[in-house]
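User: Before I run my own analysis I want an independent prediction to cross-check against. Here's the chain; please return only the structure tokens and, at the end, one sentence I can use as a sanity check.
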Amino acid sequence: MKHVIHKVTSFEIVGSFTIQICFDDTTQQTIDFEPVLKGELFGPLADPQFFRKVALDTEAHTLLWPNGADFDPATLHDWPEHEMVMKEMAARWEAGESVDSGAVPGQSRKSTQRP
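Assistant: Structure tokens:
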């Protein structure tokens, strides 16, 4: 079975923590990230000014914040399938539970390999 690779081509912030994302296959997702902005990596994004500093990472083809936080483009593309798991993980991060970063489905390979 071949794994489909998706790339973010553009985005627009359409709400406080909501981004409309366009992909290379011409599909779009509108995602409210607020429920998953918890923990060491994603928690800083809960600051509205910091959240708005999102940029398109042209190397990884995904959304990237200045602190290195990003989401796997495949997770963004198929957000409805991953949303509940991401919310559950955010609740664990908020509770201070340790989560193996290699097991985080929402992070791209780039952010999970940060020093």
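Sanity check: The chain has one domain: 8-112.
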